[in-house]
Q: What sequence folds into this?
């Protein structure tokens, strides 16, 4: 299988702390990778580096075998869903406006329609984004990420502050995107159970990478799960 | 009387220039308002005061020096703001006061100017020449074409910079483009409402239009309609009653805002 992402010896230093210390892992085509770790573990820093939002790092990040310092073309293949996007409640844009922002032409109208239907937001398309619930907004941003036909979907703790029913729908959509549309998914989460149900690979991050491998291997090993569950990672961080 | 004034050629020029400026200010202003940069137009206008004084002192057509000074100082202040991490409102205050300070020093050095400076402070739309009108139309056309071609990128980087960057949109360049267009728009509009009331044209029609709870294009169209109506009604009413056009235009646009608030309070608009 093709290596979609290859991260080698990634180090990010802030003035008084190393946010990421020697992190290396590979994501292959079709993987559904769940990245787990407590707050402050470096998940968002890792994503910022991968998305070229933070360029002050040592080590290499390759997408499709190309160093991202040399070519930014890979960004076209990525759909990114940020953690709770921040915008003004009365920002005058509808769902239709949001999913089309940044697009160069209107040629893929049919595809946009399909995506809105697939994500159950078709009927909301003329509503302003600020009027929608957290779960509905999150689906709009997934739709937005999908309209450019990405090969990879990167999601940064996408269910923070969303009700359980919306979370369930959201997870079933992710599963379908990965299994049916073969989109590689890289997803950071606090929710160990959800990672267990959805991801086929797991990475445990707490500034360094504690574990990276198949999720079956991770979740069948009680010791590993206990060791890397959020509580113990928090404690670990405390000691440092 | 009311129909007769429409036969004067100075009135034609005033209305044509006024309509163009109204459209331009509402479109460029929408991006500024949504970026929480409402007062940036005001700050550029004040810095253009320095440019106007410089032009009068040097014997150059003051609007040319105003274009140069305000665009350059707006771009510099944006660069300083990003580099030294100064907040948006503080950088606006710096730009605003330094423009006025430069203008005052130049005026005092020259021993004071004639009445000219007042027409720049308060506008003089009834005095626009044919050349001015042509320049206003050309600049309005050019900026509107740029915005039409790029509005999805402009909107995306206004809505969420981070996501726009990840989508490969050159957000920094777009930010400078918006500042550049705002600089041109402000100086172009000085003839209509003057330095002191310029931000009203940027802000009031847009704040009003946003209340109607519509999408982006409709909001922009509502804002343009309100802005053009305020300017046309303002110019005609001010001529008939012999009062200042700038103040009248702004008061009419405030009237639209108050009316919209009334409609909204009566529950006739959606919650947003």
A:
């Amino acid at each position: 299988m093709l290596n979609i992402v290859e991260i080698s010896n990634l180090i990010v230093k802030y003035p008084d702390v190393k946010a990421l210390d020697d992190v290396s892992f590979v994501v292959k085509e079709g993987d559904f990778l769940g990245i787990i770790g407590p707050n402050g573990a470096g998940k968002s820093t890792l994503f910022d580096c991968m998305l070229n939002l933070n360029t002050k790092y040592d080590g290499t990040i390759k997408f499709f075998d190309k160093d991202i310092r040399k070519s930014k073309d890979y960004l076209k293949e990525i759909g990114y869903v940020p953690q709770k996007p921040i915008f003004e409640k009365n920002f005058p844009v509808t769902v239709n406006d949001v999913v089309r922002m940044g697009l160069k032409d209107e040629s893929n109208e049919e595809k946009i329609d399909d995506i809105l239907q697939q994500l159950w937001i078709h009927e909301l398309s003329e509503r302003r984004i600020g009027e929608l619930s957290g779960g509905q907004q999150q689906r709009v941003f997934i739709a937005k990420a999908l309209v450019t036909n990405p090969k990879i979907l990167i999601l940064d703790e996408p269910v923070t502050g969303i009700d359980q029913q919306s979370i369930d729908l959201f997870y079933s959509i992710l599963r379908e995107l990965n299994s049916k549309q073969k989109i590689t998914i890289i997803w950071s989460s606090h929710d160990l159970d959800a990672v267990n149900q959805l991801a086929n690979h797991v990475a445990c991050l707490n500034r360094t990478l504690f574990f990276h491998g198949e999720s079956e291997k991770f979740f069948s090993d009680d010791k590993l799960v206990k060791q890397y569950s959020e509580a113990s990672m928090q404690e670990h961080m405390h000691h440092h | 009387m009311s129909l007769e004034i429409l036969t004067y050629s100075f009135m034609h020029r005033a209305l044509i220039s006024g309509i163009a400026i109204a459209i331009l200010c509402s479109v460029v202003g929408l991006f500024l308002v949504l970026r929480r940069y409402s007062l940036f137009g005001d700050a550029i206008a004040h810095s253009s005061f320095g440019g106007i004084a410089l032009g009068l002192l040097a014997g150059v057509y003051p609007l040319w020096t105003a274009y140069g000074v305000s665009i350059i100082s707006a771009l510099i202040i944006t660069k300083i703001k990003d580099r030294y991490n100064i907040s948006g409102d503080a950088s606006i205050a710096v730009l605003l006061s330094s423009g006025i300070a430069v203008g005052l020093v130049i005026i005092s050095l020259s021993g004071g100017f004639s009445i000219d400076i007042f027409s720049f402070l308060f506008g003089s739309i009834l005095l626009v020449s044919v050349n001015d009108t042509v320049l206003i139309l050309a600049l309005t056309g050019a900026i509107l074409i740029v915005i039409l071609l790029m509005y999805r990128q402009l909107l995306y980087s206004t809505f969420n910079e981070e996501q726009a960057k990840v989508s490969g949109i050159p957000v920094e360049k777009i930010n400078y483009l918006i500042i550049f267009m705002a600089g041109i728009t402000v100086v172009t509009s000085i003839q209509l409402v003057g330095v002191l009331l310029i931000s009203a044209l940027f802000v009031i029609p847009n704040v009003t239009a946003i209340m109607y709870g519509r999408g982006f294009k409709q909001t922009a169209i509502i804002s343009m309609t309100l802005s053009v109506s305020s300017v046309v009604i303002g110019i005609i009413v001010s001529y008939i009653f012999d009062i200042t056009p700038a103040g009248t235009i702004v008061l009419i646009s405030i009237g639209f805002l108050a009316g919209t608030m009334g409609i909204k309070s009566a529950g006739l608009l959606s919650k947003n």
